[in-house]
Fold this sequence. Notes:
This protein is about 5% helix and about 50% strand. By secondary structure, it is mainly beta. Strands 2-3-1-6-7-8-5-4 form an 8-stranded antiparallel β-sheet, covered by helices on one side.
Amino acid sequence: xxxxxxxxxxxxDFGYYALCPEPYVVSxxxxxxxxxxxxxxARVDLPGHGDVLVLGGEPLPATYFAEHLTFARWYTAEDxxxxxxxxxxxxxxxxxxxACAVSLDGDYRLMxxxxxGEDVTEADSIRxxxxxxRYLVRSLFLDVSPEEQFMLERLVRL
Length: 158
């Protein structure tokens, strides 16, 4: 797999990523999102810290497009050179499916859902800043071509 300048994390052996509140990362023990592990996108309540978004289904590399509040997971492709343009075009697609609603506010880390936070490093996580609000998580299987496919989840303000 060839990559561009995008930062990808490929640290999940289990197929699930958590958007964990930054202040809670070191306390994360890897079991908090266990109930959400049957969905591609789900919300888990983290007492005292609010909602945690869980993305999953398959152990795919993941990245984040801050300008679109959109997560992308690498399904199949030779490279990701056209992904930014494809994500831009996908914003107007009518193929998005509603997944769940989450309340988010602040700094987060996208990281392997089932790994203890004390073991999470900068290399295997992505820092994500989300403006305060309630969001609908919408999913889209992005079929750029038969050889280029990505799974997208975006946050749409409610």
